[in-house]
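Cross-check.
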Amino acid sequence: MRALRLLTSAALAFGAALRVARFGNANEHADWETAHHVFTYANAIHQMLKRIGTANTDSYVTVVRGVLHGAMALYLTRYLNVPPARIPGEDGENLDDLPADAEMIRAALLDGFDRQRQVDLAARLVARHLTLGHSPQALITTLAHVVLREDAGFHAYQILEAGVRQFTVWGNTDEGRHILIGVARYLAAHSPTERAALQTADIARRLMRGGELHQEAGAS
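Predicted model, tokenized:
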């Protein structure tokens, strides 16, 4: 019975991830957060069910009730996928216009995050990387790099963590790929930022290495 409930919560989290992966570009930008909330909530419920076991019946029943609440939230946000965004590679879509080398794909992904409105490109590059069988861990590292170099808020870290945890559940399957595509689309929709935090970190690193914060004009 516990295994069935874990499968149910994992399926809920996957359905919520699809809300993000298929988020229509015609929606208002603020609506990304609605899709984000449902996905991260569903992931939290799934993680809770994995951790608490069945020893505490009252807690277990409460969390299982949370699965129902998540399913209702997922249903109520169906409008975010009307019309749904395409999942790259679906229906025989060819991705051969993109690089095939793993490092080139990840470099193109980082380059895409330097520009606004690259949501679909980010999704296509992630799909390309995974369908060619390249390392999912290297791709996840690149997505983490994206988050760390931006002035990312809590939501960016939250969706990255939820995406990685749910990808671990499904692996490099169609479901797992759709989850990371959703993460990449969300991050691309919120990039680039001013990257002021990165500048602060760079200054701190230079000072730690004995560099000067300011140099006189004409100094070498």
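The chain is about 65% helix and 0% strand. Residues 82 and 123 are 18 Å apart (CA to CA). Passed to J.P. for a second look.
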